[in-house]
Sequence to fold (729 residues):
Amino acid sequence: MDFRLGESSEAFRAEAKAFLDEHFTEDVERMMHETGIHHSWDLHRALADQGLLAPSWPEEFGGQGKGHLEMIAFHEEFQRAGAPTYGQGTTAIVLGIILALGSDELKKMIIPPALRGEFIVSLGFTEPESGSDVAAAQTRAVRDGDEWVINGQKMFTTSAQDAKYVFMLTRTNPDAPKHRGLTTFLVPIDGGGVEVQPVQTISGERTNITFYSDVRIPDVMRIGEVDKGWDVMGLGLTLERSGAHDGHTIRLQRAMEAWATTPNEIDGTLPADDERTLAKLGRMAAEAEVTTLLARRSAWVADQGGRPGVEGSMAKLFSSEALLRQSRDFVNLMGPDGIRSFGDPTAPAKGEAEYALRFALGTTTYGGTSEIQRDIVARNGLGLPRAR
Amino acid sequence: MDLNPSDEQVQLVEAFEALYAKESPSERVRSAEATGFDADLWSTLIETGAVSMAADEAAGGWGATLLDLALVAEQHGRALGSAPIIDAQVAVRLLGRLDSGAAKDLLVGHLAGERLVSVALHPPIGGVLRMVPAGAVADSVIFFDVGELFAMDLGAERAQLRTTGAMPVADLPVAGATSLASGAVASEVFERARDEWMALTANALVGLANRALEIGVEYVKERHAFGTPIGSFQAVAHGLANARTSADGAMLLSREAAWAADEDPERFSELARLAFGFATEAAREASYASEHYHGGYGFMAEYDIQLYWRRAHAWPALMAEPDVIFASAERARLDRLKKGA
Ligand SMILES: Cc1cc2nc3c(=O)[nH]c(=O)nc-3n(C[C@H](O)[C@H](O)[C@H](O)COP(=O)(O)OP(=O)(O)OC[C@H]3O[C@@H](n4cnc5c(N)ncnc54)[C@H](O)[C@@H]3O)c2cc1C
Fold:
């Protein structure tokens, strides 16, 4: 056994760190929190310039052939730094799908400019009446000759305000059983008929509602076969759910350890001298290590050629719930000061715990809620009968 | 990264798995409940080399790594072995670090299977070593008191304590102790032994949690209520899914801790304590979930799941409650960070 990620991972981590030192500036960070938009064009284009938008891809498609264990080191650094990742994250998922299942024409049209950092892609799965039950999507796509006409509404279309396309799940056959009448498309946002309405959230992250009225797109924008959209989603959801939040926990841990080992400004006491604080820091250290190990195990399983379905769900479930527990513990521990908000100059530890508490709430919901992850662990991991 | 055990480790695990299947089925665990000690299991373990494997080759042992011992501990925990294998191995490693003649003599007798040596986890209070692991069956005990490490031979007169988890623990009045080491060496060696005990016990708790969950999962697939297997109720399934996730995390962390003893020594103390605290809670969560989803049957002595629940509470309690462990882990961690390691 060997619990080190390995030399090439550490080298790639160093590259990520160097990149972040140069490009994740205070300005970028401030903008991200002011606007709630976890996407930075400066950062995104810099990533593209260094060939870092899809480093895991083979070189012939514009990647660097990085393995899963190298990629996880890279992602850990981005999360630990608190850098914006949503734009490149959702785009990478969709590019992965197009590379695997898209037509040659679509590949040619989308992949090269996307890897040059010219645009990003949002995910349009969730609707007003369906989220966890993704396959219940009602947004309609109707064929009209060589075109499709789309009507409906998507919720939480994060990054749509900056995106050129939405990767969208639509219903093409309302008479077929739920999972058999779905088709996926890449829908241009600025081609007419799409309205993007901002949505504010508890953490300050901005997301959107998107409305689609008689949006006409050519058939070439379809991904996968007609009515076989659920197969495409299978790949999409696996790619999405493999996103654990290990780096965020480490980020909180660093902030709390720095807070605990710096004398309190008011009375000069050290929080770390208190046994209760030490116990909470230790508990966080255990959960941060477990979070990291579960995420790395998923990457290792994938690296061995396996499909880390249950392992990925465990990593997502544990990391998001642990982040929520830990941030809540520290906000409580700080007493009344704990609720001084991130961004308020009087907040202890710059309000990192207070922010993490609000941020963590979202992580337990997007990318498949904790309940959905538990269902997957119970059914596919423990072999329990389908939940009711 | 490689999460697979080596071929030798796989063989080792298979050998102990087979040994425990034969020598520690639940009837045997139950028949040893009064003392927490199964003399036949213990002699089979000694014959197999469970104690001598922990010693260096120079001392006549197998030179097993702490990770090798951890994988054996996991099997021990699965089977709820009624034998002080971890305590005995920790004593071997502790004695191997000392130069004194007294320590060497103790080690020789211990490895020969003649005199079982155990380690008290805490200094004496009011002249008594309280709740010493294997204290009811050991021939000698090593303990730490005010900067000095001692060994003490034990007489025949020892009251068997009744505890939640059927363990051969005893309260031992201090009398006629011999010094083994003093000063920095004594405290370092003692701290190290405690950390190794925690790393190994963490792995035993992982084995315990794994088996407890298997029993629970099997039961909820069979048992029906309201016309359906109870495992199809989310309240049941999700409790088990959480416990399985915690147990997976505990397994990774506990193995990493044992691995770190040789491969990442600066982090060993910290990881051993984190693993012990986390595995304690994971084992309690797993055995509670499995016990609870047995309904009333889980509460009956007849069902094996109660054996797991009781030990998940008792074994780790000999050291300290999780919050105390987490605080000591964080102290080790902050020390390391201060040194810039
Ligand atoms: C910040 C943020 C960003 C997001 N970004 C995107 C995005 O970019 N694109 C996108 O498509 N979506 C996005 N989402 C949406 C997200 O994926 C959904 O919110 C999520 O899948 C849950 O769906 P829902 O909100 O409809 O809740 P529901 O599915 O209605 O669930 C409500 C509650 O019921 C529980 N529940 C539902 N089904 C079950 C079940 N079978 N068993 C047990 N409990 C159940 C859920 O766990 C939840 O607690 C985002 C959400 C947030 C908060």
The first helix of chain B runs from residue 7 to 23. Chain B touches chain A through 57 residues (CB under 8 Å).
